[in-house]
Amino acid sequence: MERVEHTAKIVTARQLGLVACQRCQQVWPQEVDRCTRCGHRLVGRDRKSLQRVWAFWVIGLMCYVPANLYPMLQTRTFFYTQRDTIIGGAIELVHYGSYAVAAIILFASVAIPIGKFLAIAFLAVSVQRPSSVSKGQRQMLFEVVEYIGRWSMIDIFVVAILSSLVQLNVVVAIYPGPASLFFALSVIFTMLSAQAFDSRMIWDADDA
Amino acid sequence: MTDVPPVSIDADERPAFRNMSIVWVIPLAALVIALAVAWQSYNDRGPLISIEFSNGAGITARETDLRFRDVRVGVVEELQFSEGLQSVIARVRVEKEVAPFIDSAATFWVVQPELTAQGVSGLDTVLSGVFIEGSWDGEIGPPRDSFRGFATPPLYRPGEEGLQIALRSIPGGSLTDNTPILYRGIEVGRVGTARISERGNFAIAEAIIYDPHGRLITPSTRFWDTSGFSVSIGPAGAQVDFSSLASLVGGGITFDTFVSGGAPVGDGSVFEVFASDTDARNSVFNASEVEILEMRVIFDENISGLSLGAPVELSGLRIGSVENLSGIVDEDTYGDNRVRLSVVLGIQPARLGLSGDVTPEAALAFLGERVRNGLRARLASGNLLTGGLKVELVEVEDSPPAEIDVASGPVPEMPSTASEISDAAATVEGVFTRINSLPIEDLLISAISFLESAQSLLTSDDLRAAPQDLRALLGDIRGVVTSDSVTEIPVTLNTALTRLDMILAQIEQEQAVARILAAIDTATTAADTLGSSVEGLPRLVDQLGGVAEKAAALPLEELTAQITQILNSADDVLGAPAMQDLPLSLAGAFNALEATLSELRAGGAVANVNATLQSSRDAADAVALSTRDLPALVDRITEVFDQASATIAGYNKGEVVSRDAQAALRDISQAADAITALARLLERNPSALIRGR
């Protein structure tokens, strides 16, 4: 009956012999292998969840390298064509004195993606070995990563809007550079990676 | 709720690969794709070539394209300075497909917007920025990765077919570069960038005639400048001519072939550009198809009168003209800083009449050979009236050996010789001065007086009578010679000679020679004595010298004056009236001679001669007696001569004596000659003995 003592603190569905449907959140006994409400397959713990996390993480990271090396925007004005990478563009903005805009770009395009990579990697590692960070904080970190992930696409959004709007033929035209594609891929794969992470594993760690 | 079997998370005993999620395929695929793309892009990357430009000219790294036929085939990756900041080097990454074609025949230039009279070019680069245009042919040659770029497009682009020729301005003419070559108003070619020849006397430019118009060019084709316009006023009124507005502004060159039937020329021919079509037409028959041979001549004299275009003549034939004149100061070569005249001669090899190849080289070899034989250049009078000079190539005998100096400069130098300039004015003046100083009046007076005297002499009656007397005299002489007595003389003489022969034979037998030998002994003794006594001769010579000095000191001038006086007196004598009586006296003398001859014929002179011969025969007999021992006599005489020679050799110390002795010997010899002559005379003409002559 020691488990009961613990329930006052945190009681997991698993400890109660239940399993939740990951689609419709209906809780079923563990013997049930398919959710009778939505027909989704019931899995107590996804054994391959971490593998998927790491696989998508690696792809995201791979895409992030060319996203920073290739130009993000090609600005063709009357006399010349300017190609800017993400960091190069930010540095140029600093030269022009637009520190605020440069800071926003650096934050949205560099700090957040890198932070996401680090956060996902930390979460994935922490479920397999003891961590000093408490389970509640880790759950919080996961939720932030999932929430903020979609906003990383704002860069792509800006590029898409600019290249569709600024098409004045000869005078000035903006085209998306190859980096925009890789950046989008990178964002997509980090989101997939975050989604592939089974957050229930954060709570399993104590059982070990 | 309680008997829930524990669910193990890590309770799998399945092999590791069965545990692997299928999702790992995605990063693996991404990795493979990335590697493949990286490998392919690396593999597709062409080589890096460097093109050197004198300036950047708007080239930007990673932006400026390299284009071939206006298609992008590369991009400038890097722009940097060469060592020492001498030039700009653009490193261009070229595409792999075209890289092998970029061989040593490739040329590169920067395309920039250009606004000329012919139109606007490179307008697209206003918006896109400059690009580097490359040109190469379609054949793969030896690879090369370093090139020199040009600021302007080259005239010859590899792969562009056309006849490549060169155009040269005529001396004093002009040549506009980068102009079109028009034919019947159509642009069929282009003149490239003109450059000045090595010595700056003409401009030369490469030109291209695009295919298929190259066949229009034959050796008889003449080019002329159509730039600008011409105004002419004639019977048809005033005319303004210009071919096109473009050529009016930017210049143009056209050509025509005035003589049909020439074979098309090949690449590399050189043509002259004339100022107008009239000049070009006139030049058709002046052979100047071969490049002229230029030679430099340095003249020591600085003589005005030599001008550009002055003729250059070889043996009187004009073979070229003076192309350039300048002064030269070369202290190193000539040792002083005097200004010398440096003349550049343009020699037409065709005018030399060489057999075989008519090239400047052949002409130079020909002239070099002639120079070795003494050919020199000199200045000579070309025009007596204007004082204009020309350059003559003449062979100077005994000239110091020289060669054409090919090494010292771009133009071979020909040796020169002293000029032959007849200064007409000075010569004429000298002639007149001499004529002026002639004593013409005295001469005429003398001549008049002489003619008068001669006239009076010739008109005298006595002179006219002289020929008749002379004829009579000759008749008499003929009479004497043909007389019987004279014809008998040879017979008598013959017998006399026979007798003489006998007498000489007798002499040999007799002893009379012994006496002569004794006499010669005496002479020898006398010679010995002479030998001892001539020691005093030097003193005698001194005295002679004194005499000679005195003779030298004689008042010769006075003597001359006296002689002159005598001559004057003789002149007076000739002019005296007594001379006019001379013919009369002559006639008298002839008469006397005639009388004498008559007497001779009448007085039996021949009989006397016969008697004389008889006497001489007797005398010869006597001589014969005394000449028997002649050989011994000859020996003795030889001995005497030997002694005399020895004696004379002893006097060789005093040359004067020796000379005197030699003179004495000469006298003896002369005497001997005289005797011989006498003997011969006698032999030829025995009657001389009789006549005493």
Any key phrases for this structure?
heterodimer; A: 208 residues; mainly alpha; Butyryl-CoA Dehydrogenase, subunit A, domain 3; three-stranded antiparallel β-sheet; 8 helices; disordered N terminus; B: 693 residues; alpha/beta; seven-stranded mixed β-barrel
Compose a concise summary of this entry.
Chain A has 208 residues and is mostly helical. Helix content of chain A is 56%, strand content 9%. Residues 1-8 of chain A have low confidence and may be disordered.
The CATH topology of the largest domain in chain A corresponds to Butyryl-CoA Dehydrogenase, subunit A, domain 3
Rg of chain A, Cα atoms, Å: 22 Å
Overall shape of chain B: it is elongated
How much is the radius of gyration of chain B in Å?
58 Å
From the N-terminal CA to the C-terminal CA of chain B, the straight-line distance is 201 Å
**What's the mean pLDDT score of chain B?**
75
- What spatial order of strands do you see in the largest sheet of chain B? 1-4-3-2-8-5-9
What do you see in this structure?
The complex is a heterodimer of chains A (208) and B (693). Chain A has helices at 2-7, 49-69, 86-96, 99-126, 135-149, 154-165, 178-196, 201-204, and strands at residues 18-20, 27-29, 73-76, 81-84, 173-176. Chain A is mainly alpha-helical. In chain A, helix 2 (49-69) packs antiparallel against helix 7 (178-196). Chain A starts with a helix and ends with a helix. Chain B is an alpha/beta fold. Chain B folds into four domains: 43-150, no CATH class; 162-285, no CATH class; 293-425, no CATH class; 459-691, no CATH class. Chain B is 43% helix and 22% strand. A seven-stranded mixed beta barrel of chain B has the order 1-4-3-2-8-5-9. Chain B has a seven-stranded mixed beta barrel with strand order 10-13-12-11-17-14-18. Chain B is elongated. Chain A binds chain B through residues 14, 16-17, 30, 44-45, 47-48, 51-52, 55-56, 58-59, 62-63, 78-81, 170, 196, 204, and chain B through 1, 4, 7, 9, 12, 19-21, 23-24, 26-27, 30-31, 34, 60, 63, 127, 129.
